[in-house]
């Protein structure tokens, strides 16, 4: 059953983390793909992704890597992922950064929901537990217990916030919650609360252990039945995980689809059909004010988007390196318009890098000595990313141009009787034919494959409406210094 991962073991050690994680997926979760209920760990659509996750988790057992991605749990002494570390100073922040960079570099920034983002959100809420407790009794105790369990059991966590698009004109009309499909409380019992409705878009849903579920819209008291924060195990009775089409290619096609074969993060719609949430997993109940504070909490937002910005930088570096290599391979680096485009890509990377440095160097300690990066800088980088990535893909497409189509169906074509001719006519200016084809197949997997289209859509919208986000930055920013520069010209 798990033989495909066992085959990749290093002889010197046992991959304990990956085995525990993969076995945790052998439960009663209701995962649906193409009209059939499936076992995630058995299905070919998930093998490349699970192999990637397993290799990342096993870094915590690797004597060389474990200090790069983890730290000793204060409870068990075993190494746990640094996303759980609540930073108390600049050194801790850099330790978190090193862990995020290690995972991002291993996936070239192509996997955004490897659990380090959700773990960072959780760590932020745990750090702010005293403040958030005023919205619901026992919040501090409950978040502490779950935080420690998730940390020490290496639980895979993902966050789901968005509401389904049935009729957006009536989506938050409290009289139409059921019609609009909003996740809402339907019944309260001594055991917990029952909820029905749906949530989208749950990235990594089929292979997560737990969901952190809450809305992101600002709700009022009339809408309080939808204003909840829950922990929901993936195998909860009545929860159905409906997957989109898989964009994963079989591992056997890795030569032709090097990214799609390894890094496809499945997205899903979650349908809650009278799901019981035990009181232990009810962190906030019918609390519009609490939910809004959870969403905007500086601890959680700063730590989570710090991770997201590190991943974005890695991804832009990858696209920039790919564009530079293609331009060099087809001999067009001397053209001014190509230099201009490559310079723009390099400028994107340097801008995000500078924003990260600014956010980290201008971090500060807040309540209880928690040290956070400057969020206004993090927010700027996040907002730029929604526009940078689509532009980076456009530039890559313009530079590669028709060369993206000038590739054979498979690398295996070089083993055919036409191989001598192919080696002549598929070569590059300074690259032999097979490597040139590999390069352009890699580019196609970033530009033209279903995997690529999903990534462009994801980067545009994963943080929400980019227009609303930029408007929110304007509304929340302190403009006093900016206005002072003008007022001196207006006074007598």
UniProtKB/TrEMBL annotation:
InterPro entries, A to Z: Acyl-CoA_Oxase/DH_mid-dom_sf (IPR046373), AcylCo_DH-like_C (IPR036250), AcylCoA_DH/oxidase_NM_dom_sf (IPR009100), HpaB/PvcC/4-BUDH (IPR004925), HpaB/PvcC/4-BUDH_C (IPR024719), HpaB/PvcC/4-BUDH_N (IPR024674)
One Pfam family it belongs to: HpaB
Coiled-coil segments on the chain, per record: none
Residue span, HpaB/PvcC/4-BUDH N-terminal domain: 19-284
UniProt domain HpaB/PvcC/4-BUDH C-terminal: residue ranges: 303-480
Entry keyword set: FAD, Flavoprotein, Oxidoreductase
SUPFAM superfamilies: Acyl-CoA dehydrogenase C-terminal domain-like, Acyl-CoA dehydrogenase NM domain-like
Name of this chain's protein: 4-hydroxyphenylacetate 3-hydroxylase family protein
Native source organism of the sequence: Salinithrix halophila
